[in-house]
Structure formats: structure tokens, C-alpha cells
Amino acid sequence: MKFKRLEAPYLRSDNAVSAMMLQVLVALIPGTIAYVWFFGPGLLINMLLAGLFCVGFEAAMVHLRGRKVEEVLMDYTAIITAVLIAFALPPLTPWWVTATACLFAIVVAKHLYGGIGYNVFNPAMVGYVVALVAFPQHMNLWLPPHIGDMDYGTLSLTQTLAYTMTGNLPVAFDDISRATPLDMVQAGLKQMRTIEEMRALPLMGDFGGRGWEWIGNFIALGGIGLLIRKVIRWHIPVAVIAGVLVPATIAFLIDPGTHAGPGFHLFSGATLLCAFFIATDPVSAAASPSGRLIYGFGIGVLIYAIRQWGAYADGVAFAVLLMNMAVPAIDALTRTRIVGHRGARS
Amino acid sequence: MTAATFDLGKLHGGLRLDANKSQATGQDIVDIPIPTQLVIPLKQHVGEESQPVVAIGERVLRGQLIAECVGELGAPVHASSSGTLVSIEPWPVTRRYGDKTLCMIIETDGLDEEIRHETYPDYDTLVPSELLERIVSGGIVGLGGAVFPTAQKLMQADTCDMDMLILNAVECEPYISCDDMLMRDRAAEVISGAQILLHALGIDECLIGIESDKPEAIDALLNVLAESGDERITIKQVPTIYPSGGEDQLVQLIANREVPSGGLPTDIGCLVQNVGTAAAVHDWIVDGRPLTSRVTTITGNGVGTPMNVRARLGTPVAELAPHAGGYTDHAELLIIGGPMTGKSVSTDDVPVVKATNCVLVMSELPAAGKELPCIRCGECAAACPVQLMPQQLFWYACADDETRLREFGLTDCIECGCCDLVCPSHIPLTFDFRMAKARIREQADEKARAERARRRFEARNERLAHDRDTRDEAQNEQRAEAKKASRNAIAEILARKRDKDTKP
Q1: A341 and B409 in contact by Cβ < 8 A?
Q2: Which end of chain A has fewer beta carbons closer than 10 Å to its terminal beta carbon, N or C?
Q3: Which whole-number Å values give the CA distances from A45 to A41, A96, A155, A233, in the listed order?
Q4: Do A16 and B370 touch (CB under 8 A)?
Q5: pTM
Q6: What is the predicted pLDDT for the residue at B208?
Q7: Sign of the CA dihedral B147, B149, B154, B155?
Q8: What is the model's pLDDT at position A151?
Q9: Is there a contact between A240 and A279 (Cβ–Cβ < 8 Å)?
């Protein structure tokens, strides 16, 4: 009798890039719900727009590069990039800012470098940084959280949509815009106010800003789900968090008056989103477990350093891009010790 | 007697695979009747082809030496039943590259007459070196699947400082259960084989590594050990994680020693043998029967009744299926060995050989997902038992960067298939690495050839130069002599002329 010939191994597993990416998207749902709860529907509109732009750009680039469009789009990575861009942008963002971010993320950072697997930089962070540098005036329309005792004006869904399409606010900017907790602390310190004073303000919660810290919790919840399902490994999240906490704790212990505590840094801005969802992009991260610890810790320390001494209130995007640059060096220096060899060769 | 323990070294990575063994372990081992034709390859082991010692047309008996070993890595071959040697011809066998090899074809006569060799039930009265030589002559090779000649390993006892015998009863690949069934059936012979090997090697520590999902086999071994009271032998259970039964991996697990890169377990004092090999040693030394049959698992959804059978070496695989319920509609793939490292063959004409531990007949696999670019997720590195970074190796394999491939340990890859299985981008890493290894070997061969050619060319040039030099010297000398001679001749003529002139 005749049989077909194949190459070993003759088992198949269900592991697939698309399944991994789909789980990442699902894990972002709790954080998204929390964000919308506190800051209104702006995030959803941004996600929708960014999704359309990213998928559109990806389809165009894949077509131009002569690949099969359906096959590439099915890996969901363009949608993850879109969702991360939407999280990074303020909840009120005109559409052309989102479009620019998506253009640079997908066309420049991803496909001009060779597409998935070959991008040196995290595409979402490249897109966000371009938007941040190109449209500084549009990048500071942050809202106060919807919490009962805070009586601020808010925009309805139609008003949010109208702003996104036209860039014209129906109300005075100062009536709805509020500084983020990170902005507030950075500006407050420059005005010689103490952390203790600022912590008494209504925007501040138990650790970070009110509302923000809850979003952080839900982001972390999704992230822990990914860890349990082994979609991501623990090295990068733990290292990023440690990288933020270690310098923050030391500085706080030395001078609590002018340094916000470790809890504030952990639950403010994009620290947790970065730890679980941004820095964990495997393509632009270091390869070995020890390399990933160094990579993550570097991101954490840079986040803290930019917040503390930089011009920007949050430094996640810059921290990630800077460590992306360091990846080849980290990879060269942190090889695993192959069994049977005396030590790691470098 | 020592109880089974879990006291282990550490193995990196590995996978927990569905065992799929219980299908074949429900019933006792079934003996396959002697086939009308036995196909016995001259080469059933790594190393050199054996040399036939019987002529075509000659009658042979079971256990008779029919081919003797040549070279260091050879192993003798014995007839597995009585009959007539009708031809020696190329026949399809199980090999990764190349499909046919020379086989001795024996028409059996059904009498199964046997040659009895000398027996040594009191082997412990023999000097270890004599016993070693006796074992070597039994044609025994490793029955675990790698078929490294046992003799070669045993002979290293002389040159290496060996202090530990390890019996490999792990059988970590899914589906395979022949060692499990052999231990349930013949635990006493396995232990006896271990004792013979211990005496032959002059060492007194033996560890038996066995996967914890074989409680019946463990009990069988423990009972025999309890009866014999042999304290040199310890059973160590290892967790059911593939590939803990890889030779180097097992040594690392149960002896907590690392086999150096490019080396063998014997380099660090460990001799590893399969349990089937131990039983074969017993049969040869105590009963005088060389290795002419083996237990093999025939399983998968391609056969009606998966089971373990005892077949004469040389029995065509096609003869096994009818005893295992025949082929089902799912019989689309035939794999000799396990589903992780076995070899897919195109015909069931291939014979059962010393290495055939499993015949896996199964349905065609679902098409592997389309190969996508590597996203460097690192799952492969997490699964690699040798702690390689397959994602980096893959990168360098694509670039054909030999220096980097060596640096990142391509040659340390054991081709276990773990990285391949977990890869979410469906990259056939094992195949790619095998190809990269082959390319490196080829390049090395070519380099060696070029080097030889260069040396020959240089030698030729030197020789020519030398010839030219000596020839020139000779010519110069000749010329000088000729010149001198002609000068003398002229002088003579002139002198004669002067004489004539002065004598009017």
C-alpha cells in the first residue's frame, strides 16, 4: 500500500498569530469599558476611525506590495495598532490627527520596514509620537472623569462626533478640558506646590487620578488574563512595572514633598497599558527572557525619567521607542546559555 | 530495593503532549507469525553496512550470523528465522534521505529451526572484558530508535571513566508504548540485562528513568528488584514531558549532568541504554539468542485495533496491519517512529528493523496554517529543551549565515520538533534547521574538497618547480661540460695545427 509523505513533526497545534491577536483585543475590552465609563464615548469614536484608517492603509500597502490582502488583514495586528493609537490619543481628537497617526504607524513604521515581523519600532507608538509632535494644540484636550461629585460640563455623543469631524468645540475649551493628573503634578511642582497639597485636589484618587486609576485596574485585569492564557509572558510586564516603581519609590522615600509616590506613577497615564499591551509587542521587543527583563526595565525607568525631568507629562511612547532602538544591542548581549555549553557566549 | 523517586535535575522547556498510548496497551503483546519472506537490511544502525557471510541459495537458521560487522560502528546481523537466502537487492527501508538500501531476502520455510549459541548463565564468572566482547557479538544495537551500536557505546567503557548505567524507559513520544509493554511482560529480563551490563562495565550504579504515567511497568520493575534485592539499581520517575526521553535530556534529568556540546553521555561517565536493549542483552548472554525480534507498537486511527506486537526483524510492515485489525479508511500516512521525530514512508513494504519502535498509521493531517513571518513571540525558545533561541536561528537560517548559525547553536539542535509545534506563525522550524544543517555539512565538505584540491595543486607546482630546477641544473652542468669539452677540443685542434705548422 502507498502512503503520502510528510516532514516531522506530524502533530498540529491550535497556536496561531490571529488567535493570539484576537485574545489581545478581547483583553482590552475591560479597559475600554472603564475608559468610556469615565470619559465618555470619544474613545470609541477614535477606535472606530483609527480602525478604519489602519485597516485601509494596511490593505493599500499589502496590495501595493503584491501580497494577498485578505490573508494579511486576518492577523488582526492592524486593528490592535488602531486600538492602541485610540487609547493614546485624547478622547476628543479631530479625525485628521488620528489619520496622520495611523498613516505613520501602518505605512511608515510597519510596511516600509517590511510588514509584520520586521518592524523595528512599535507602530502605534510611532503614530502617536508623530501626532504629538505635529499637532501639539490638539493633544491636550483631556476631560475630567464622570464622577458624581465632580460637576463639570460634558459633551454628548453627537457633540463629540461633531468635534471629531470639524475640530470646532461647541463650548469654551476651558469649560470642559481638564489637565490629566500627570500634567497637573508636573505643572504643580514647577509652581513650587507640594505633592501633599495636590493630592487634596478633587482630581486625585487613592493612588493616581480619580477615574484613571480604575481604568488602570481594568487594563491590568485584561493583562493578567493574557498572562494566564500565556499569550504574553511575565517578563516584560513585571520589568516595566519594576522599572517605574523602583526609581519612583527611591525618590519618594528621599523627598515625598516633591516626588509623587510609586502608586501614583503606576496608576497614572499609560504605565499599565504599556506594561501589558504596548511593550509586550514581541516584534519590536528583545528576544530572550533576560533581554526582555532589561528591555522592560529600561522602558519603566525611562517612563519615570521623562515624567520627572522631561518636557512631556507622560513618556510611555518615547520610552518604548528608545528601548526599541536598544533591542539589537540587548539581543546581542543577552543570549540564553545553550545546554552543554559552559557559559553564554557573546 | 529502592522506591521510585522524583528526585530530579532540571530540564528546560518541553511540551505536555496528549499521550495517546492507552489505545495500544489494553491487551498483551501479540506474536506475529513468521512471514513467508524476511527482508533484512545490511545496515540497521548508524555506521557502516555489514558484510554478508552466507551465499545466495544457502540455507540459514534462526540466530545464524548472516552478515558480520565492518568498521568501528558496525553491528553483526543474524537471520530471524530459518529459510533460504534468495537474493541481496536494494529494497525500500525507513530512512530520512534515500529510500532503498541493500537487503538480504530470505524465503522462510516455516520450520523456524534455530542455532543455539553458547550460553553464559553464570556470566559473573567471566572477566568484564570477555563479557563485553560477548555482548558485542550479539548484534545488539540501541533499540530506542537511534540505533547507535551498543557495542560502540560499551567499548567506550575502556576509554571513558564510566560510573553510571542509565536505562532509558521514558518513551516520551506520544503513541509509542513498546517499552512500557516490554517492561510489563519481561521486567525480570530487563533487570537481568542491567545486571549483566553492570558486570561487563565494572560499575555499580544503575538508574532506570521511566515516565510517571507507566505505573504497571514501574510496579513490575519494583517487584523484580524487591525479589533480587539488588541495591545497585534505582528507579527514577520523570514527569510526562516531551522530550525527557532524549538521551542527553534524560541524563540531565536523572543524573543531573550536562552532556557537553558535541559530546556523548559517555564523556561524562554515563552509559545510556534502552530497556529493550537490556532485555536483548539478557537473551543473548543467558539464553544464547541473538537479537532476531522486537516489540513494536502498531497504532493510530489508521489501524482497527492498535496494539503491541512482537515481530521478527525483517517482517514487512504490511504483515503487521492484518493482526491489528487491518487498515481503516484513515490510513493515509505511515510513520515509522513517533509523531514528533518519526519518519514518514511512502510504502508498507519497509521491513521491521532493530530501530522500529512504532508503526503509526494515521489520517492525513489538517493542512498546516499558511507560513507567516516570525513575530518573535519567543514561544519556540520557551519550549526548546536545549535552550536555543529558534527565532534567532530561523533568522540566520534564512540569511544562510553560517557563522551566526554556529554561534547560536544550530548543531546543538536535537530536532525534537517542540519549536515547530508551538509556532503561531506555522513556520516549519525543524525542517528548516535540518536543511540548514545539511547545507553547513555540504559547505564543510566542499571546503574540505577545495582544501584537498588546493594542497594537491600546490604540491604539483612544487614538484614541477623542483623538477625544473633539477633539470636546469643538469642542463647547465651539461652545457658547462660541453663547453669545456668543446674548448678542450678546439685547444687540441689548435695544438695539433701548431704541431703540424712547426713540423714542415
Answers
A1: yes
A2: C
A3: 7, 13, 13, 31
A4: no
A5: 0.84
A6: 94
A7: negative
A8: 52
A9: yes
